Amino acid sequence: MIYARFNFSFKAPLMRIAHLSRCFFTSSISFARTQLNVSLKPLPSVSSSSMADPSNFSTVSAEDEAKYGFTREEMYSSNLAGTVNPYDRHLFLRHRSYTDWASRVEEDSLPKLFSSTLKSRKNDIPVKTLLTVIEGEQSDGDVLIFPEMIKYKGLTEGDLDGFVEDVLVNGKPWASGVQETFTGSYVFVCAHGNRDKRCGVCGPILIEKLNEEIALRGLKDQVFVNACSHIGGHKYAGNLIIFSPDSKGKITGHWYGYVTPEDVPELLDKHIANGKIIERLWRGQMGVSTESGDGTGEQKLPNGTEVKKNEKPEESTVQKTRENLGGCCQGANGSSCCMTASSEVSETKKTEETTEAHGKKGLCGLTSWVGSWEQRDVLTAAAVVGAVATVAVAYSYYRKVRLN
């Protein structure tokens, strides 16, 4: 009975200690994350010359601007570097006006058939290839290929099999078309408003600001801006990709997120003019080697600085899987045909697994330690106290007998 009473009274405080310790560690981690998110916000620009013309916002309501524009709460809340999976080639298909695109533009006539053809030949295409739709109108069917800087005009549904076979599978000029080379720098801005309102609000404003700054610099024949369909990572809007030659003349596509009109002059003067990356906005790039694995965990800026991928998933793995299954196919030999260029399912899954593993080793470790302490040490302590109590009773009985 002495043992039972002790075991009951000693166990409750230990459980309270475990609970309080777990709460303390959880609160500490939450506080650290809050501080990290705050530290990620860059200082606002003080240059009045780089501010966007207020008239640019005339077509956007104040409510939509606050909820979906450049001042929304989620801006700068996530790490950007590493949010683009490695790939080797990017195709841009011109197709209608971006204001007319359906939510799933990849399911519309030519883009849909192009995607299906790429999917059917996925095991034959030697390099990982992404497909994105860009505004076309008078040039529907034109295909721009990066980093080769090659263009083919007027691709039709009947041309697709031959085009994919010649150009993408065998790496030869298309037998039924005229291959053209082009030069200059190209900026593709996600303005797919029917897919996500953040891109629909931010994209057109960035396109207008880019064209304005390009004109001021006399670069209309050197820098070209196009609206593009969803490229992955709605929450990072404004999203854009810049293809331009570096100091060695190599063409590489660099992805940027959280871009605002104030950032446009810097992108033109620093990135396009001098080949320097804007690190605070950089998401990743085309052409990162995948020899050491899938390459999604980390990337390096051109200056050699190592950066980690974003560890804050936007949506659940199930939601991302459902979204990406509609527009992206992954090949067994490393090739893919994607309308959404950022494969965020694997990123989110890895992040969740990493978080779970760290949680088990960290917070849950305390609970396990206390649990094992209860099972082992409480019983030991109870046995000691029981022994002491037995000795005390025996000694009391001994004294009583001796006195009598």
TrEMBL record:
Q: In its keyword annotation, does this UniProt entry include Transmembrane helix?
A: yes
Q: Which SUPFAM superfamilies match?
A: Thioredoxin-like (SSF52833)
Q: Which InterPro entries is this protein grouped with? A: Aim32/Apd1-like (IPR009737), Thioredoxin-like_sf (IPR036249)
Matching Pfam families, A to Z? Suc_Fer-like
Q: Which Gene3D superfamilies match?
A: Glutaredoxin
What residue intervals traverse the membrane? 378-398
Keywords associated with the record: Membrane, Transmembrane, Transmembrane helix
Basic and acidic residues: bias regions: 306-319
Q: Which residue intervals make up region (Disordered)?
A: 288-319
Protein name in the entry: Altered inheritance of mitochondria protein 32-like
- The organism encoding this protein is Gossypium hirsutum (Upland cotton)
Which gene produces this protein? LOC107926072
